[in-house]
Amino acid sequence: MLLSKSAPSMTRRLILWLTVVMAFLWLLAVGLGLVVMEEELAEIFDGTLQDTAERLVPLAVDDLEHRSLVGASPQQLQTASSSGEREYLIYQVRDTAGRILIRSHDAPAEPFEAPLKAGLWRSDTYQFYTAANGDRSVFVQVADAFENREEALREGAMALFLPLLLLIPVCGMAIWFVVRRAVRPVGALREEIETKDGGNTEPIDATALPKELMPIAASVNRLMQRLRTALDAEREFTANSAHELRTPIAGALAQTQMLVAELVGSPHRRRADQVEASLTRLSHLAEKMLQLSRAEAGIGLADHAVDLGRVLDMVVTDFQRGMADPDRLVLRHPTGARLTAPVSEDGFAIVLRNLIENALIHGTPDKPVEVFLEDGGPVRITNGSPVMSAIELAAIRKRFGRGRTEAEGSGLGLSIVDRLLGQMNGQLILASPATGRSDGFEARIELRHL
Questions:
Q1: What three-state secondary structure class fits 329?
Q2: In what order do the strands lie in the sheet with 126-132?
Q3: Do residues 113 and 127 touch, judged by C-beta distance below 8 A?
Q4: 293-336 pLDDT, tens digit each
Q5: How far is it, in rounded angstroms, from Cα 298 to Cα 199?
Q6: Which helix (H) or strand (E) covers residue 302, if one does?
Q7: DSSP 117
């Protein structure tokens, strides 16, 4: 079963969620920190207001008494010069009647709206603190604009949030690195499991796996052991059955053919012909089962390179000798074309026999079956047929799969070819229409290491 490229990645999902959760927790911590910072800043600013007002009271009273200005009209008072910079704190010194006696440079000329009562008081734009002298004849009111506090809070928030813009990507990359290293054994186990099929049932080495993955590897190994046992039993049964059936089937077929010859002109001749056809199909099926068992036994490779062109010549010649119309099977190859590879001659001959046999049986009877050998490969076998769809091409590759044909067949030929070519590091490519034609069917043998 092929994995979909759009399937979600566990690693990507883990990295994404860890990064998102980490960023969320950081943002939550910064948000809670800002709430605490706002409260602490309010306490600090309120304390500063109180300290400033209480320190100004004796200074203002002393200055007023020294200059004998208590009770003077506001128009007689002058404010001190300023450097022109904005004052963060402004104040007014007022008498019991609420008149302004002294004010800071940026303080308004009109009295503050705060009442002449000691303590904190707030308006929409200012926080006030009022302090009075001992006989409560002079009041000092100091005001702090809320925009100053908001500016301090914004600067504090920027100081906390800006580093996160750098830290979140950095931590994301660190999480990616750590997670990739942590899940590497999972990837190694996945790749090891992907290699397991009917041709590779060796146990997985679990010694280097973390303990969390060892039960999975142990389960896969137990499954592989049961699969090996089942496959061995199946191959042995198939090989033994096919081998044991060949002799009695051949004997029965010979006797039936003799009977058919003796029943010339007899009304029983038709039944004898049917028995002969059935025995022929049974003999053919037994042969295919024997080929399948040999293919699954792994006979595809050889220790040294062999001349596969010679094997092709022998197989084509053998078919032509047994055909009523030898000219229907045509071998085409350039002069001197060679094909060599370290594969089994017997296995390659089985591949060629199945493909040529399929072309002769299922191809259009009045069109030739052509076998092409190019220098160094590939080998192409074409026959006449209506154009087949991609779905039909995929269906006939399956064991016992059949296309749109009325001809007899076991449905095992292409399955045997696929198995043997897989062992030879090759592949079978089916195409319709055939190369250079508007119709037909083509089976192409490609050996990847050539």
A1: strand
A2: 100-103, 89-95, 138-145, 126-132, 119-122
A3: no
A4: 667 666 777 778 888 888 889 999 998 888 888 889 999 888 87
A5: 8
A6: strand 301-307
A7: S
Answer for the pair 256, 277: CB distance below 8 angstroms, yes or no. no
Question: From its phi and psi, is residue 317 left (phi > 0), alpha (psi between -120 and 50) or beta?
Answer: alpha
Which DSSP symbol is given to 159? H
Task: List the Cα angle 56/60/63 in 5-degree steps.
Answer: 140
**Placement of tokens 């010859």 in the chain:** 261
Length of the chain: 450
Report how far residue 72's alpha carbon sits from residue 265's, in angstroms, rounded to the nearest whole number: 154
CA dihedral 315, 387, 399, 368 (to 10 degrees): -20
Alpha helix ranges (H) inside 68-183: 146-182
Mean pLDDT along residues 67-82: 46
Which residues, listed in sequence order, are joined to residue 381 by a DSSP beta bridge?
Answer: 371, 443
Residue 85, pLDDT score? 64
In the prediction, which pLDDT does 75 show?
A: 34
Task: Tell me which residue of 250, 252, 273, 251 sits closest to 261, measured CA to CA.
Answer: 273
Mind giving me the DSSP string for 1-12? -PPPTTSPPHHH
Domains of the chain: 11-72+84-166 (3.30.450), 198-297 (1.10.287), 299-447 (3.30.565.10)
CB 438 within 8 A of CB 375: no
Q: What is the rounded average pLDDT of the residues 348-363?
A: 88
Q: Do strands 89-95 and 138-145 pair parallel, antiparallel, or not at all (unpaired)? A: antiparallel
User: What is each CA distance from 356 to 93, 381, 395, in whole angstroms?
Assistant: 115, 7, 19
From the number of C-beta atoms within 10 Å of its C-beta (0-12, 13-18, 19+), residue 200 rates as: exposed
Q: Which two tokens stand for residue 268?
A: 């029983």
Instruction: Give pLDDT tens digits for 307-317.
Output: 888 888 999 99
Q: Which residue has the tokens 């490519």?
A: 429
The most distant pair of C-alpha atoms in the chain lies apart, rounded to whole Å, by 157
pTM metric for this prediction:
0.48
pLDDT digits (tens, 9 = 90+) for 24-65: 998 898 889 889 988 988 899 889 898 998 898 898 888 887
Question: Which DSSP helix (H) or strand (E) runs through 89?
Answer: strand 89-95
Residue type, 185: P
Q: What is the pLDDT of residue 2?
A: 47
**Distance separating the N- and C-terminal Cα atoms of the chain:** 28
Q: Are 440 and 433 in contact (CB under 8 A)?
A: yes
In Å, how far from its chain's centre is CA 225?
30
Q: Among 387, 379, 371, which Cα is nearest to 441's?
A: 387
Radius of gyration of the chain (CA): 49
Tokens of 35: 């709430």
